[in-house]
Amino acid sequence: MGIYLNPGNEQFAVSVNSELYVDKTDLITYTNSRIGKDRPLICSSRPRRFGKTMAVTMLSAYYSKGCHSEKLFMGLNISQNEFFKTHLNKYNVIFLDIQWMYGNALEEMKRNSALKVVSYIQEQVITELRNEYSECVQEDDISLPSVLAKIHVKTKEQFIIIIDEWDCLFREDKNNEDLQKEYINLLRGLFKGTPSGAFLKLAYITGILPIKKYGTQSALNNFREHTMVSPRQMAEYVGFTETEVRSICKEHDMPFKEMQRWYDGYYFEKVGHVYSPNSVIEAVDSREFGNYWSGTETYESLMMYIAMDFDGLRQLIVDMLGGQRCSIDVESFQNDITSFNSADDVVTLLIHMGYMAYDNKIKKVFIPNDEVRSAFLRAIKNDGWEEVIRAISASEALLKATLAMDEQAVAQMIQEVHMKSSSSLIYNNEISLSSVIALAYYSACRDYTLVRELPTGNGFADMVFLPKRTSSKPALVLELKWDKTAGGAISQIKNKEYVSALKEYKGNILLVGINYEKKSRKHQCRIEKVEF
C-alpha cells in the first residue's frame, strides 16, 4: 500500500461512518461496465463540494489491491450487484490528487527552483512503482507513461488510474501555458495511444472543468465526458436526488419544503431535481438554512466573471436575477478560465462552477435556487450594479402589492424602478420593459417559476409566474403594453385565452396588465382575479 500506488480505504471509511452518508455506490456499477470495453475512460466534472472527492475515494477503496474492503461495502447498494466481488480489490490503482500534489510541488520548488510541477508528479509515482516493480523500473526513468508501458510488457499487469482535481493546474495557474501543455502531454501519454490502451484497465478523472479544448477539439477526445451541461448516465451522482433529500429530511426532522427552496434547482432529465449535497449536509448539521457557498473567494471570483466586458453579459445576469431562463450557446466554451470570447462562454463557466443551472432539453440557463441567488446578490453589491440592487430591494413590497391587487401601488413602484434606473435598466420597447418588470418582481423567484412567452391558445402570454410546489400563492399572468392601456392588456389576456395554458393549475389566478406611456413616462396597472 502506498500514497499513490494501491492506496488504502481509510478516507472512504470515514465517509461511510459519518452521521449523514448517502449511498452512491451504484456508480461502481457504471464504472465496472466500462472495464474491458472500448474507451474505458470517464471524466466527471461538477462544482466544488458536489461529492467529487467522495466518489474517487470510493472507487479507489473498491478497486485497490492495497486494502480489503468487502466489510466496508457490505450493506451498501453495490454489494447487491451480482458482479460485486468480481472486481473488488482486484486491481493496481494509481490515485492522484493533483491539487495536493501541486501544493507539495510548490513547497519543493522553494528549495529547488529547477523543479517542474509535472516532473514532480511523475517522479512521486515512479518512486512507488520502482519499489514495487524494481526489475522493471530504472533509476533514470522519468516518464510515467513509459514506466507503466514497460511494467505491462514484462508483467502483463494493468492499472486503474483515478485522478481527483484533474483541472487544478488550469485553475490555480491559469496563465501558465507551458505548464498546462506539459500536463496535457502527460495525460495524453497516460490515456491516448496504443501503449496506454494496453496498460490501462480503467480511468476515472474528476474536476470542476471539462477537458480542455484546443479550437473545437478536446485535448483528450477519447474520454466519455459527464458535465453539468450534460451529465448523461451519471446524472444521479452529481448531487443528492429529491428522493434522497426527502429521506434525509424525514430522518433528521428537517422541513423538506424549506430544504427545497434553498438548495433545489439543478435539473437533469434522467433523474429530475438535484440538490447541492454539501449545502444539504451543512443545513442538517447546523439545523439552519442559509448560504453555505461561503468564503470571500467565492464572491470575488463570481464578481470577476460577471463584471467582464462582453456584450449582453450584464443583461443576461439581470434577466436571470429576475427569474428568467435564457438561451445560450454552450459549445464554444474552451473549458478553461482564460479563453473567453463571448458572454455565453462566461455563463457556461458559471454553469460548470454551479452558479447557474442548465436545462439541456430546452437549452436554457438559469440561477438555480435561493442559496446561489444570495451569492449573486452579495457579489453585485458594488461596482455599478446599484440600480439592480435598488430594484431587488423594493421587490418584496411590489409582490405584496400585486397579491393585494393594489393597482396604484404597483404602478408607482414600477415607476420608481424605472425612474431610478441607469443604463442597464433603461428600456425603449416591450422586450426591454419585460426585463425590468422581471427584475422588479425579483422576490417572486422564491415562490414562483417565471415563464416568458408562455404558449397559449391564441398566442403567447408575456410573463407567467407559476407557483412552485412549495408555494400556496396564486398564479400571475402579466401582459405588458407600450403606449396603449393597462385595461387593453387585461382584455388581451382574456380575448386570447392566455389562462387556458394553466389548465393543470388549480386555484386563483391574478391577471396583471401593465402599460408604459413613453411621452409622460408613466405606468398604469390593472389587476383582476379569476379562479381556474
Description:
The chain is of the alpha/beta class. It folds into three domains: 10-226, 3-Layer(aba) Sandwich (Rossmann fold); 237-286, no CATH class; 394-532, Trna Endonuclease, Chain: A, domain 1. Helix content is 42%, strand content 18%. It has 23 helices and 18 strands. The strands form five sheets. Strands 2-3-4-1-7 form a five-stranded parallel beta sheet. A hairpin with a 2-residue loop joins strand 5 and strand 6 (217-218). Helix 16 packs across helix 22 and helix 20 runs antiparallel to helix 21 (407-419). The longest helix has 16 residues, at 117-132. The model is unreliable at 422-426 (pLDDT under 50).
Strand order of the largest sheet: 2-3-4-1-7
- Give the CA-based shape: elongated
User: What would CATH call the class of the largest domain?
Assistant: Alpha Beta
- Number of beta strands: 18
List key phrases describing it.
Trna Endonuclease, Chain: A, domain 1; 532 residues; Rossmann fold; 18% strand; 18 strands; 5-stranded mixed β-sheet; 3 domains; alpha/beta; single chain
Note the topology.
Layout lengths: L9 H7 L10 H8 L6 E5 L6 H12 L6 H4 L10 H4 L4 E6 H14 L5 H16 L11 H12 L3 E6 L3 H5 L4 H15 L2 H6 E8 L5 E2 L2 E2 L5 E3 L13 E2 H10 L4 H8 L2 E3 L3 E4 L1 H10 L9 H11 L6 H9 L4 E2 L15 H10 L4 E3 L4 E3 L3 H10 L6 H8 L1 H9 L3 H13 L10 H11 L7 E9 L2 E9 L7 E8 L3 H10 L12 E10 L4 E10 L1
Parallel strand pairs: 1-4, 1-7, 2-3, 3-4, 16-17
Antiparallel strand pairs: 5-6, 8-10, 9-10, 11-13, 12-13, 14-15, 15-16, 17-18
Helix pairs in contact: 1-3, 15-18, 16-22, 20-21
